[in-house]
Write a structure and sequence with these properties.
Helices cover 40% and strands 16% of the residues. By secondary structure, the chain is α/β, with parallel strands linked by helices.
Length: 333
């Protein structure tokens, strides 16, 4: 007899949470999960992890809305997602969104709110990495503005469309281990810019956002978690780094990583933790925490490249970042 497990229909009542690993893929994680009737929003749907995340969800019967900056380019890049939907009963559509423009974020959110169709989950997959020093349309440092503030505004505006039980999954990175957020100088106005530090700060902000969002909404059945997809070469995220620079980054990280060297993942392996956190893992297990390799990561403040730094889960730090973020985007939630 079919029962309910963590809010997902058509899952046997005796279903047990399966253990996955660093090598698990999206299809392995979602095997046996029927997502017919479920609806997800995935940002950054036109490349790499975004395409695979959408494909895996649609292949399990979900209805997926993907956000993209370049609509024409996205149409050709997402043919595999459309193909998957043709045989699964799911569906896939695209909306335009530029996270580096608050005007674009508001326009996208307003369009979705006007349509009024609810979501069971949002996967904040889009992001930029190691960009040259620059600013978003609204004057924010590019990585902090795109990776954190754009998603902060979008997700908070879409809360009315999140139906309980719902998940918000925010893609972070092990790079958060290299820097806490700087609440006094988020735009590098008074400090020398470093692309790696800026990326690390934006990904710490992502985790802190998940912590505070989860605190605010868990009583309403809406949970948030941050995830690290792993080290993946074959995505657009590293487009500001050539192959030699990426390999040098890997080598430097491995030299400092002790017993836990970085291992490159495939795209289906990289997207697995996102769909695991959005669909498979129990809400109380992943709400307000940081996950990697399809499991909840331990808190570690040593030099190993695994786990989450304690400052990224600090509740008071998360509340302060929320207040700073509201001030920066000009809206209170």
């Amino acid at each position: 007899m079919a029962g309910l497990v963590d809010g997902y229909r058509n899952v046997p009542s005796n279903f047990m949470v399966q253990t996955f690993s660093q090598k698990s893929t999206t299809d392995e994680v979602l095997s046996g999960h029927e997502l017919s009737g479920k609806r997800f929003l995935v940002t950054g749907a036109s490349s790499g992890l975004g395409i695979e995340t959408c494909r895996a969800l649609v292949a399990s019967g979900a209805h997926v809305v993907g956000t993209v900056r370049d609509f024409a380019k996205a149409k050709s890049n997402t043919e595999s997602v459309v193909e998957a939907s043709s045989s699964s009963g799911g569906s896939f559509s695209l909306v335009t969104l530029d996270l580096a423009s608050l005007e674009s974020v508001r326009r996208c959110a307003d369009e979705l709110l006007e349509e009024g169709t609810c979501f069971d989950g949002i996967i904040a997959n889009a992001g930029v990495m190691a960009t040259p020093f620059g600013h978003t349309e609204d004057g924010f440092e590019t990585q902090f503005g795109t990776n954190h503030l754009g998603h902060f505004l979008l997700i908070n505006r879409l809360v009315p469309l999140l139906r309980s039980p719902a998940r918000v999954v925010l893609l972070s990175s092990l790079a958060h281990r290299f820097s806490d957020v700087d609440l006094d100088d988020p735009n590098f106005a008074d400090s020398k810019y470093d692309a790696g530090v800026a990326y690390a700060r934006s990904k710490t902000a992502t985790i802190l956002f998940a912590v505070e969002f989860d605190r605010r909404h868990r009583d309403a059945g809406i949970r948030a978690t941050a995830v690290h997809p792993g080290a993946i070469m074959d995505t657009d995220l590293a487009r500001h780094m050539d192959e030699a620079a990426f390999q040098a980054m890997m080598d430097n990280a491995n030299n400092a990583s002790g017993d836990n060297p970085l291992v490159l993942k495939t795209i289906p392996q990289g997207a697995a933790t996102s769909v695991w956190a959005a669909v498979v893992a129990p809400a109380d297990r992943v709400g307000g925490v940081y996950c990697e390799d399809c499991s909840v990561a331990p808190v570690r403040d040593d030099e190993e490249l695994v786990g989450v730094r304690s400052y990224a889960l600090d509740a008071e730090r998360a509340r302060k970042l929320w207040a700073v973020s509201e001030q920066m985007v000009g809206e209170t939630f």
